[in-house]
Write a structure and sequence with these properties.
single chain; 486 residues; UDP-N-acetylmuramoyl-L-alanine:D-glutamate ligase; Protein-Tyrosine Phosphatase, Chain A; 3 domains; eleven-stranded mixed sheet; six-stranded mixed sheet; 33% helix; globular; nucleotide-binding; cell cycle; cell wall biogenesis/degradation
């Protein structure tokens, strides 16, 4: 692509050198530079890309985008000075791949809990409606039927535009994207044109990165603040932060709720472990998904699909044949009559939602056993809160390891235990080895009891001392059950 074309709509402070160069590739990682690349020097949290300008030129980069010009300028290189390299990278990536987000209806979903579920459910609903779409989520990236491995909650902005361009080429009309606070903060959504932005909820999470809840809230809000006036913002107004997201947005404002008046209103008529009978905007339907959090997830899916112009009856018909998202309230019953639920819940709010959903359904003749932990090298303040929730809402809570990463599992467990109230001391035990903790839950359980294994959901690994070991909660449950029932 010609450099002059690549720079369209991008505010440039200074240009030194030729602007009629051909650019072969766009990179911000100096290790990936090839001949005639354009290298963007981004100031990151760990390293400053400006330190690698010289090595990028040595590897073949002919164009450099930076915030600070080097002292000695090479006459054979084009230097472009901008105010913010990180934001410029997003705009360059969009131009480089032909602005694919403007050729699709791109829907972004953000919030603390439910982002993956809503994005995946939207993809599945639109497949049921007969449309080829793209999905960018934590669990997987899909373009139609093609699956691309996912590595981060929000991929880097070059990868996002590559995937969206592939979606355009494949004839997709819609793309559904999980938008994380990290992605917003690091400008990974810069230059993207969103048709609809959905907000699920905002609770305690990622304070290891954002430091304060206020900063976390402002980061999420920025996603809505930066929407164009031709976009639609739809938020959960049962969450006190739902209206905050809409305060400064130029987008058309829409709402959904179970408890308050909203454009999209839902009610639960019946619920059990097999599914729910729901009423959305006066229309009844059955879904095999269960739990109050899934009512909110489906209501947002319903609202987004409605705003995209689909008839509400056909949307509900497509929703009614949905299957559960992997690792999200995934249920199965052993031949011994014990009911297992595997869920990704790894925040206080998510864990409380799962346990409340179970307690709403069970008759109280069954016992609820919860196996859970907290990830290492992450927000410490949520650990005691989760200890309190699990012991308060379970018959027995077994505290164990999640992904300890570089932390000592025993230290994490002690921080979780600190939140257990005295009246619940007899309702928990701690077993650092996750496999042994699940084994203890099965040993303790009797027919009709319910075992919730929370925290990892779809993940098939456990990260210990920086090394990922294969570990799948569902596999371990099935393996242990077969061994123990012989």
């Amino acid at each position: 692509m010609q450099l002059i074309e690549l720079l369209k709509r991008i505010p440039v402070l200074e240009i030194h050198g030729k602007n009629d160069r051909e650019v072969s590739a766009l990179v911000f990682d100096s290790r990936k530079v090839t001949e005639d690349s354009l290298y963007v020097a981004v100031k990151g949290t760990v390293a400053d890309g400006h330190s690698f300008i010289t090595s990028s030129i040595e590897k073949g980069a002919k164009t450099i985008v930076c915030e600070e010009l080097p002292e000695n300028l090479d006459q054979n290189i084009t230097y472009i000075k901008v105010k913010d390299s990180s934001k410029t990278l997003g705009q360059l990536a969009s131009n480089f791949y032909g602005n694919p987000s403007e050729k699709l209806k791109l829907i972004g979903v953000t919030g603390t809990n439910g982002k993956t579920s809503v994005s995946t459910l939207l993809f599945d609903v639109f497949k049921n409606l007969g449309y080829n779409s793209a999905l960018l989520s934590t669990v997987e990236i899909r373009v139609g039927d093609e699956i691309i491995p996912a590595t981060h909650t929000t991929p880097d902005v070059i990868t996002i535009n590559q995937i969206l361009a592939k979606a355009v080429e494949s004839g997709c009309e819609f793309a559904f994207m999980e938008v994380s606070s990290h992605g917003i903060s690091q400008n990974r959504t810069e230059g993207l044109h969103f048709k609809i932005a959905g907000f699920t909820n905002l609770t305690h999470d990622h304070l290891d990165y954002h430091k304060t809840f206020d900063e976390y809230l402002k980061t999420k809000k920025r996603f809505f603040d930066e929407l164009n006036d031709d976009a639609i913002a739809i938020t959960n107004v049962d969450d006190k932060n739902g209206n905050v997201m809409l305060q400064n947005t130029k987008a058309k404002k829409k709402s959904y709720a179970l408890k308050t008046m909203a454009d999209y209103h839902g009610r639960t008529l019946e619920v059990d472990f097999n599914g729910m009978l729901l009423n959305f905007n006066g229309k009844e339907f059955w879904t095999t998904l269960t739990g109050k959090f899934n009512v909110y997830n489906l209501l947002l899916v319903f609202g987004i699909a409605s705003e995209l112009g689909f008839q509400q009856e056909e949307i509900l018909q497509a929703i009614s044949i949905l299957k559960r998202v992997s690792g999200r309230f995934e249920t199965f019953k052993s031949d011994g009559g014990i009911f297992f639920i595997v869920d990704y819940a790894h925040t206080p709010d998510a864990l409380e939602n799962v346990l409340d959903s179970v307690n709403d359904i069970r008759t109280k003749n069954e016992r609820l056993i919860t196996v859970f932990g907290c990830g290492g090298d992450r927000d410490h303040s949520k650990r005691p809160e989760m200890g309190n929730i699990a012991t308060k809402k379970s018959t027995l809570a077994i505290i164990t390891s999640d992904n300890p990463r570089t932390e000592d599992p025993a230290v994490i467990i002690k921080e979780i235990e600190a939140g257990v109230e005295p009246q619940n001391f007899s309702k928990y035990t701690s077993i650092p080895d996750r496999r042994e903790a699940i084994k203890m839950a099965i040993k303790f359980a009797e027919p009709k009891d319910i075992i919730v294994v929370a925290g990892k959901g779809h993940e098939n690994y456990q990260e210990i001392n920086g090394v990922k070991h294969h570990f799948d909660d569902k596999e371990v449950i099935n393996e242990l059950w077969k061994l123990m029932s012989k």
